[in-house]
Design a protein that fits this description.
Blueprint: H1 4-23, E1 26-32, H2 34-37, H3 47-57, E2 62-66, H4 74-88, E3 92-96, H5 99-103, H6 108-124, E4 128-132, H7 142-158, E5 161-163, H8 189-200
Parallel strand pairs: 1-2, 1-3, 3-4, 4-5
Length: 205
């Protein structure tokens, strides 16, 4: 038979074991391409690294895993999303893919299917999802409009949060791009973070 003091000691011990689980940080998975991988700049200057600092400043208990790969297309992302979800078990997924699809002129229907599958896989794991829109130069003609529209279509169909354009406020400033005229400089990264933050902040609980 347990005496009350013994029972109390056992209860306190159990609560101490549970405390680390209750306080464990949640995880944000950044799932993008070179625009999120920090191509051509220091990794600690890329917007996902700046996100870590912002979360700390705002005392939000989240880990950030940057699973972005330079050159990645939506097809490549679709092929590896399940493994990334299984490995990191994120509570929030930021999907920032599609730019390479657009620059290569890949079919918009393929982009739509791939993004939808990535979002669906994330939602199946009960992750909150932010879809980050992309644009390509207007000299792509009607394709450029169709391409950009895909992101809104997927967000509405999957009922997920949306940022209209990752490079909003950056794309028109040539001084904020590296010599290749494709990848933003370190100085532009805070603007990218601000764009993402508009859609991400409401998802952080």
């Amino acid at each position: 038979m347990f005496s009350f003091p013994n029972y109390r000691r056992l209860l306190l011990a159990g609560l101490m074991l549970l405390a680390p689980l209750a306080q464990a940080a949640q995880t944000i998975l950044i799932f993008g391409d070179s625009l999120s991988a920090g191509y051509g700049i220091r990794q600690d200057a890329a917007w996902p690294a700046l996100l870590v600092k912002r979360l700390q400043e705002k005392r939000l208990d989240y880990n950030v895993v940057n699973a972005s790969i330079s050159g990645e297309t939506s097809s490549g992302g679709r092929a590896r999303i399940d493994a990334a979800l299984a490995r990191h078990s994120p509570q929030v997924v930021v999907v920032a893919l599609g730019a390479n699809d657009g620059l290569r002129g890949l079919p918009v229907a393929q982009l739509r299917d791939n993004l939808s599958a990535i979002v669906a896989s994330s939602q199946k794991k009960r992750a909150r999802v932010l879809l980050v829109g992309q644009r390509i130069p207007p000299n792509y003609g009607a394709y450029a409009q169709q391409f950009h529209a895909v992101f809104g279509e997927v967000a509405r169909a999957r009922k997920t949060a949306l940022v209209d354009f990752l490079l909003d406020g950056v794309a028109t400033q040539s001084a904020l791009f590296q010599a290749d005229n494709l990848h933003p400089t370190a100085e532009a990264q805070s603007l990218l973070l601000d764009n993402v933050w508009q859609g991400l902040a409401p998802l952080l609980k």
